Structure formats: structure tokens, C-alpha cells
Amino acid sequence: NEKPQQDVNALIKNMVQEKSKIPTQVVQSLVNQQQDTLREIIEGFEEKEKARLEETLLSESGQQQLALRTFKIQISKQTEKINTLQNLIEQTKIKKEEKRNSALEIKQQYEQVNVELEEIEMQTKNIDSESLKRVEALVAEYETIKKQEQERRATYKSQKSELEQEISQLEARLQSSSDIDPEEQEKMKQIEEQYQLVSDRLQNQRLALAKKIREISSISRRIDDIPTTIELAQYRQAFFQLYNQSAVLYRQTKQNYSLYNTFTDMIDYMKKEITLLDSIYQNYPQAFQSQTGKENFLKQLENIVGSVKQNRIKIEQRQQEEQSKRDGLHIQLAQLVDKARHYAKVLKDFQEAIRENESLTSKLD
Questions:
Q1: Given this model, what pLDDT does residue 333 score?
Q2: Where would I find the CCDC93 coiled-coil domain in this sequence (predicted)?
Q3: What is the DSSP string of 148-175?
């Protein structure tokens, strides 16, 4: 019985002093040891009772009651110890769960803070240096105004407390004295006017501070709405890509329309040719039966050949016009390419001049 009791005492001592974590196996072994101890006590008591009954059938009632009382006391003590141990186990489990939950909350807060820091770093990278300087100047001005407002509040608060103290003293003096002195009344009136003046000044300063804060927030929103140079470059690149895509699509559509018109003209000419050949095939035997029919047939053929030649001449003229347009467009393209090269060169020289100017300005500063 001494060894389980020592284990229980040692466990309770460690729990109180170190607040360490208790393994489940140790707790179960301790509970089992207490149950085994109770079982041994009960069995020993039963064996003793049986032996006493065998030796003496009727023992004295006082000894039996004493033994029974002792046994009940031992059982109640062991039960209390077990209950205490179970309560400690439950409390330890609850503390362990609370610590684990608090650790998880701290971890989540740490991860959230890291995410916010990364977002802030990404936002500060995309902010223009001039806008950042303006925002920093506004923030510094806001902090200065806030500090001045705190100092004014402290001053006004001290003045208010002094005035209230003077007012309370004057009121006490007025209440204590039955005769009211006109000088005291005048002084009290001046103090009240001064107090009202200080209160009005404090209210005006608060309104001015609120107005300044609204202006700062409005300027900050306008600064946020202004796109940075990186964003402008991205917009410009996106517009160039869209323009190139639309130009390619327009060129392909124009080529498809031209090809369709060409194929349509070819189909029309082939239909006319087939119709002409059918007409010649059908009218040729009848036309050569007489000299007049033969002459009419040849005249019709000559007229058809003439119309074909005229159409050919028109098509050749149209081809020459298109070729001249193409040559003019080639010349314009070459001129535009030269202008683009000249523009790139001028832009490069301008950027170099800007860098030299900035370096010279920094050296002068």
C-alpha cells in the first residue's frame, strides 16, 4: 500500500511544481494500482472475517463495529484519493487542450502576420517613389498634428482641472459665507468665461484635426488611384498586344475576303466559258448550214472575243493600280520604319541625358 501512495504523491507533486504533461499509460497504471489496493483490502477483510467467524461463531459486537468502521474509513479515503487523482487528470487534460489551442491560435496569428507583411512588401514595391515620399510627408504631418493635439489636450486638461478646482473652492467659499462679495462674483465669472473659451478652443482644434485627417485620407485615396509607372507600362504593353492582334486579324480577314472575291470571279468566268462552249456546240451545226448563218455566227464570236479582251484590259488596269498601291504602301512602310528607328535613337539619347542629369543633381546635393 505504501508504494502506490508514494507514486500518487510524487505524481501530484510533479503536476503542481512542473505542470508537466502526464502520459495516459501512467495515469491508467496508477488508477489500476488503486483499484488493486482496494481489492486487496476487501479480500483481506473478508478473509479475516471468515477466520473470525470460524474461530468464534459469535464475536463481540463492538470489535465488529470497530473493524467495519475502520474498513469504511479506509475505503472512503481511497475513494477520495481516486476522485482527487481523476480531477487532477481532468484538469491537466483541460490545461493541455487549452495550451494546444492557444499554440494553434498563436501559430495562425503568426502566419497571418507573415502574409500581411508579404502583402505590404508587394504593395510598397509597386508604389512610385514620388508618391511614397508624398505619403510619408503626409504621415509625418499627421503624426506631428496628432502629437500637438495630444499636448494641447494635456494642457487643456490641466487647465480644466485647475479651473474646476478653483471653481469648487469658490463655490465652497460662497456656500460657507452668508454675504456674497461682488469681487468674488466677478472673479468667478471671469473664470467661467476663461473655462468656456478654453473649451471652445479645444473643440475648434478637434474639428481642425478631423478636417486635416479627412484631407490626408482623401489625398491618400487619390494617390492610390493614380497608376504607377509599372502599371502604365503594363497597360501600354497590353494595348500594343491588342493592337497587334487586331491588325493581324484584320489582315487575315482582308486576305480571306480578297481570296473569296477572286474565287467568285473565277467561278463566274468559268460559268461564262462553259455557257459559251455550250452555245457554240449547240449552234455550230445550224450556223454552218448556210452562208448567212455562218457569217452571223462568226460575228457573234468576234463580239465575244472583243468583250473578253476589254474585260482583260480592265483587269490588267486594276492589277496595275493595285501594284501601284502596294508600291506606295511599301514606301510608307520604309519611311515609318526609319521614323521608328529615329524615335528609338532619340528616346535612348533622352534617357541617357536624364540619367546624367540625375547623377549630376545627386552629386550637387
A1: 92
A2: 9-363
A3: HHHHHHHHHHHHHHHHHHHHHHHHHHHH
